[in-house]
Amino acid sequence: MEGFVHSMMQQFGVFGIALLMFLENIFPPIPSELIMPLAGYLSTQGDMSIFAVVAAGSVGSLLGIIPWYFLGRMLGEKRLKSFAARHGRWVTMSPEDIETAGERFRRHGRLSVLVGRLIPTVRTLISVPAGIARMPFWQFLLYSAVGSVIWTAALAFAGYGLGQAYEVVKDYVDPISTGIFVIIVVAYAYRVITFKPHTS
């Protein structure tokens, strides 16, 4: 996994990080918890600044959640639940996930968008009830941007700190990150295989 992220950075620079973070919100097995720390510690090798990494990760993450906002806005809760009941296996999204995200949004309002961006699994789904509730788009972007910057910066700087000790940990980072990635992919595959479409 470290080699893959490094390759993306070498080929596409900050655009590679933005692309990975965009895909993280579309395809769940690509986790930001691996992308940003790896990008952060690889930035210590001189390819780009840590601030460019944070900016690219934040922009990519923000672009990745916008489609979910408009999906919720266009379909509404009832039709979106119906869609998730039939096809949710591919995005690991069930009607119950939508209901949980909706309850969180109704309980905490706009603040849930900001805080939700800091919580794994909730980070993407919180965009859906914001769209369903027709939260003003500029407010959605503002709160999402603040949460996204905090999240990506925390992960990137954690990796940056690790990168300072690169010579000590370089023989361990790639096997560990690859192992975590494999576990996540297996968990995703398990959910896809065991997903049972809801019938009404």
> Please, what is the average pLDDT?
77
Number of helices: 10
Number of domains: 1
Fraction of residues in H or I helices = over 70%
- Whole-angstrom Rg: 17 Å
What is the global morphology?
A: globular
For the secondary structure, the number of strands is 0
Distance between the termini: 41 Å
Order of H and E elements: HHHHHHHHHH
Q: List unreliable stretches of 5+ residues.
A: none
Biggest sheet details: none
Structural class: mainly alpha
Bin the strand percentage. Answer: under 5%
Please provide a written account of the structure.
It is a single chain. This protein is mostly helical and 200 residues long. It has one domain. The model has no long low-confidence stretch (mean pLDDT 77). InterPro entries: DedA_domain, VTT_dom. This is DedA family protein.
Which helices and strands appear, and what pairs or packs with what?
Layout: H1 2-12, H2 14-26, H3 32-42, H4 50-87, H5 95-108, H6 111-116, H7 122-125, H8 127-132, H9 137-163, H10 166-194
Helix pairs in contact: 1-2, 1-3, 2-3, 2-4, 3-9, 4-5, 4-9
Identify the notable features of this structure and list them briefly.
single chain, 200 residues, mainly alpha, 80% helix, 0% strand
Question: Could you give a quick summary of the protein structure above?
Answer:
Helices cover 80% and strands 0% of the residues. It is mainly α and 200 residues long. It is globular and about 50 Å long.
